[in-house]
Amino acid sequence: MNSWGYGELQRQIEYKARWEGVKVIYAPARNTSKRCSMCGYKTLESTQRQLWCPTCGTFLYRLERG
């Protein structure tokens, strides 16, 4: 799987989801690293990799691009 491109990974996920009867929902990538994955609260800009959501108390870990 490490040698798969993004398109192949997406194709495999869609195929397996259809096989199991699971719906695939695509989320827009814009601002996903700025929103809490638990409650959706927009976090403050930070240069740190670890963020804390003041609304629900969840710790979030940002991935680096590149």
Task: Explain how this protein is built.
The chain is α+β, with helices and mostly antiparallel strands. It has one domain (6-61). Helices cover 23% and strands 9% of the residues. It has a two-stranded antiparallel ribbon with strand order 1-2. A hairpin with a 6-residue loop joins strand 1 (50-52) and strand 2. The longest helix has 15 residues, at 6-20. The chain starts with 5 loop residues before the first helix and ends in a 5-residue tail after the last strand.
Compact summary:
This protein is of the alpha+beta class and about 70 residues long. It has one helix spanning about 5-20, and strands at about 50, 60. It is about 25% helix and about 10% strand.
The average pLDDT is: 78
Q: Which of globular, elongated, flat, extended, rod-shaped describes the shape?
A: elongated
CA radius of gyration is 15 Å
**How many β-strand stretches?**
2
Helix and strand run: HEE
Level of helix content?
Answer: 10-25%
Features:
about 10% strand; two-stranded antiparallel ribbon; elongated; single chain; about 70 residues; alpha+beta
Layout of strands and helices, then pairs:
Layout: H1 6-20, E1 50-52, E2 59-61
Antiparallel strand pairs: 1-2
